[in-house]
Amino acid sequence: MIHYHGTPISPVIERQKMAGKHFCVSFERPDDAEWCLANGQSVLWDNGAYSAFRHGKPLDTGKLYAWLERRLAQPHWAIIPDRIGGDTDEQRAMVSAWPFPRTLGAPVWHMALAIDYLLELADEWPRICFGSSARYWQIGSPIWERRCDEAFNALAKRHPRLPWVHMLRGLALAGDRWPFASVDSANVGRNFKTLNTCPERMARRLDAIQCPIIWTPRMVQQDLVA
Q1: Global pTM value
Q2: Which of 5, 62, 169, 215 is 20 to 30 Å from 147 by CA-CA measure?
């Protein structure tokens, strides 16, 4: 599993200790973008939808695509624009507008949307993201866990060799039962100073915690999930 560490990370002397890691850089906070390209193993370009949602402003996809134009190539990839709280038709419209190769992007399936839409994305894209929304906003809550079990049950039935599933804001799930191929979190950048620790040492410990690569189907209480 790949652990993408969120940026920015400051001061510079501490960020430099993280050279060689995988990074997640948001369109809303591109401070470290060039440094991460030059010094990271790979970069996940976050579309900034989460930050835009929290601040109540729209996502400017035109500016996002212009920003990605010279930064998007293998092994780097980006999260395709999405709307937190949007319905399936809104998400489809945003995914269909993606101007780059499919190998360089990943659409988001928000957990409040239908499982059928998740399967539709998995049929068409080599990589997909899970986003926590609506009643499933709290990652790791009992209702979230049941929904995640339901999603992986459906994916594994349709695609025994699971597609690449990235868990947004999911670093805390490393080592749990779900076979995520990658996760991201701003945990290190936000907390290494509070914990009075070296960011690289903190990241190294997190990077060593892996998820399983195979999903074992689980029983789900259907009356408790949407």
Answers
A1: 0.93
A2: 5
